[in-house]
Amino acid sequence: MEQIRVLTADDLEKEGIEILKDAGFIVDEKGKIPVDDLLKIIDNYDAVIVRSATKIPAPVIEKGKRLKIIGRAGVGLDNIDVQAATSCGIVVMNAPEGNTLSAAEHTFALILSMVRHIPAACSSLKAGKWDRKQFMGTELFGKTLGIIGLGRIGRRVAGYAKAFGMNVLGYDPFVSEEEMQRIDVGLVTLEGICKQADIITLHLPLNKDTENILKEQHFSMMKDGVMIVNVARGGLFDEAVLEKFIRNKKVKAAALDVFCSEPPGCRALIELDNVIATPHLGASTKEAQINVARDICKQIVDALIHKTIKNAVNVPSIDKEVISRFKGYLDLAEKLGLFLAQMIDGIPEELSVEYAGEITNYDIAPLRVYLLKGFCERFQPATYVNAPLILKEKGVGFTEKRKISAEQFSNLITVEALIDGKTYSLAGTVVASEPRVVRIDGYPVEATPEGALLVCRNDDVPGIVGHIGTILGRKNVNIASMTMGRKIKGGPAITVLNLDQEIDNITINEIGKFPGIRSMRMVKI
C-alpha cells in the first residue's frame, strides 16, 4: 500500500506535523504556495493543509486526482472552493475550536481599546503629550452588546460581556430560542440588534448568505453613536458604507481585525482617527496556532486511517460517537444502496428511504450519505461527499421519512427505487452487529449482504433449489448460505444465495432455463 502523503501549505506548528509523522505519513512542508506552483504538485498528495494565505481554487482541486481531504488549520474557508471539492468527492474540514479563545479575547481587547481610546492615548503619551480630557472613555457596564453569529466564538464573547455587566442580545437563525435562553442571551432579529445595541460585534463565516449581511439600511437604523467590531471575516459589510457612517458620526467608532482584501487596498477607512485596526490577529496567539495545528492534523489522521470524519463542512461528521451509536447501521445503509442499484436497470426517477425504530431519535444524515454513496457507486466513482450531488445531477428525486415503530425489528431501513413505473425495494436491519437484508420487494428473507449474491425470482414450486444447486455444483461453485421468501404458498418467491464466487452469464442463463425461474441477477457487495 502506497504511503499517505500530506502537503502543508502555509506554516504549521510542529506539534501538528508530529501527529502526521507519528501516523506514518510522509509530510512535505512547503509554506505559502502560489496557485501555479500548487498545480504542478497537488496530484502527489492525499491531503493538503492550509491556513488563510494559500488558496485552493477549483483548478487545483480538479488536478488533485489523489486528493481526499483539504484541511483548514483555522475556521474561515473563503480561500478554498468548497463546491469544487464537493463535486470531486473531496472532504473539506476545518478546526473551529482551536482558536475560539484567542478570537474571543481579541474581540474584547478591541472593544476595550475602542471604548477607552487606548491606542490613541498611548500614541499621544509617546508623542510627549499629557491630554487626559481628549480621551474620555465609556463604561461597558449596563451597555447592550449585540452579537451577530452565536457559534463558539460568539458565545464566548457573550460570556465575557456578561462578566462586564453588559446586556447581551444575539442574532443567529441557526440557534433555537431554547438554546439562547440556556446561554442567557436575548434572541432578536438582525434589525433588533441594529436598533438596540450600543456595540455590535460580528462572528460569522463569509459565504453567499452572510456576505454584506449588514447593508446600508441596517446602518441607518442603528443607534446614534453605535460602535462596530469585526474579528470574523471581511466582506460581512461594505467598508465604504461603514466609512460613510463614521464620517457622518452615526457610528462613533469601529474596531476591525479583518478586511475585504488583505492587506487593505484602500486605507481611507483605517486611517480615520476613530477606527482601530489590527492585521488579522484574531487567531494569532501561540496557543491558538498549536491548537488548530493539532486539531486539523488529528482529524486528517482519523479520517484517512480510522475513517471517522469530524468538523467537515461538506459532509456530515462521522466521528467515533456516531459510529458507536449506529454500530452496524452505517455499513447496512451503504450495502442497501449498492444492493438496490444492482437490482435495477438504469437510473431511477425516484429514490426514497424510510428509517424506522430507535435510530430515528438521532440525526440520520450519516446514514443518508452512506446509503447514497453505496447507490451512486454503481454508476460512477462516488464518495460520501459527492454522492448527494451525483444523485441530483442524474435527475433522481430523493425523499426521506421517519417512522417511530419498526414492527418486529428494533430498527429498519427501507429503500425504494421507482423506475419506468415499477418500484423495487430492500429493507434491512442489524443482527448481532452484522447487516441483514430482511425484505426484497416485500418478500421476507434473511440474507447477508456480503460478497457474491445470486438473487432469483421464481415460483414457489418443488425442484428450484435442487436445480440451482446441481448446476452450481457442476461448475464447482460453493453455496455459503441460502434464504427463500414467499408471501403465499405456491405463489411468487425470491431466493437469495450467498456464493463463494461470482458466476458468469453462461451459468446464469443455464440456471434460468428451468421452468419456474422468472429472472436472476448477480449482485456483488
Automatic annotation (TrEMBL):
Gene3D superfamilies according to UniProt: 3.30.70.260, D-3-phosphoglycerate dehydrogenase, domain 3, NAD(P)-binding Rossmann-like Domain
One Pfam family it belongs to: 2-Hacid_dh_C
Boundaries of every D-isomer specific 2-hydroxyacid dehydrogenase catalytic domain copy: 6-314
Highest rank taxon of the organism: Bacteria
Coiled coil: none
Domain ACT per the UniProt entry, residue ranges: 454-514
Gene Ontology biological process terms in this record: L-serine biosynthetic process
GO molecular function, one term: NAD binding
Catalysed reaction equations from the record: (R)-2-hydroxyglutarate + NAD(+) = 2-oxoglutarate + NADH + H(+); (2R)-3-phosphoglycerate + NAD(+) = 3-phosphooxypyruvate + NADH + H(+)
Functional pathway: Amino-acid biosynthesis; L-serine biosynthesis; L-serine from 3-phospho-D-glycerate: step 1/3
Domain annotation D-isomer specific 2-hydroxyacid dehydrogenase NAD-binding: ranges: 108-282
Keywords (A to Z) from UniProt: Amino-acid biosynthesis, NAD, Oxidoreductase, Serine biosynthesis
Domain D-3-phosphoglycerate dehydrogenase ASB positions: 326-440
Keyword Amino-acid biosynthesis tagged: yes
Enzyme Commission number, as recorded: 1.1.1.95
Similarity annotation: Belongs to the D-isomer specific 2-hydroxyacid dehydrogenase family.
Function of the molecule: Catalyzes the reversible oxidation of 3-phospho-D-glycerate to 3-phosphonooxypyruvate, the first step of the phosphorylated L-serine biosynthesis pathway. Also catalyzes the reversible oxidation of 2-hydroxyglutarate to 2-oxoglutarate.
Protein name: D-3-phosphoglycerate dehydrogenase
Organism field: candidate division TA06 bacterium ADurb.Bin131
